[in-house]
Amino acid sequence: MDYPEIGTILERCEFFKGLEKSEIEKIAKLCEVKSFDTGEYVFQQHDFGQHIYIIAEGRIFLERLRDLGERKGKVVIDVLGKGRVMGCWSTLLGESHFLMSSATCEKPTKVVVIKGSDLREMMLSNIDLGFNILERFCFLLRDRIQAAYGALEKI
Description:
This protein is α+β, with helices and mostly antiparallel strands. It has one domain (about 5-155): Jelly Rolls. The protein is about 35% helix and about 35% strand. Strands 1-10-4-7 form a 4-stranded antiparallel beta sheet. It has a 4-stranded antiparallel beta sheet with strand order 2-9-5-6, with helices on one face. β5 (about 60-70) and β6 form a beta hairpin. The chain is globular, with a radius of gyration of 16 Å. The termini are far apart. One of its GO terms (cellular component) is plasma membrane. This is Cyclic nucleotide-binding domain-containing protein, DUF4388.
């Protein structure tokens, strides 16, 4: 996948939609593409998080392990497809943490990967871009929290 193709994926994803073409082109240069097979993890709960992932092709189950004593298992928080974003958001805030969910591929999947700290540096050097990305980040977090609450109700 070349930079123009990555740029098209970024333009259409929920996180970067509406940004200026010149900003998308700069962000595309920070990206790499990775492929995963059915059943493979993009990341696992408790991994140290450093990256943000945009789904270019495929579907991913965003899952959380649960342990309620005798009842153990996985809860699907959300099913994410093309254009959806996931990963370690705290890197955009200059913080690191361990991931609170796992991302498992339902079928062969390609993701665009951005190192969060690199995107943060770009956001700090362009405050308007930084604000636009953090605003989208707030909406994305709202949606994930709603999905997590919905998953909890199924337990």
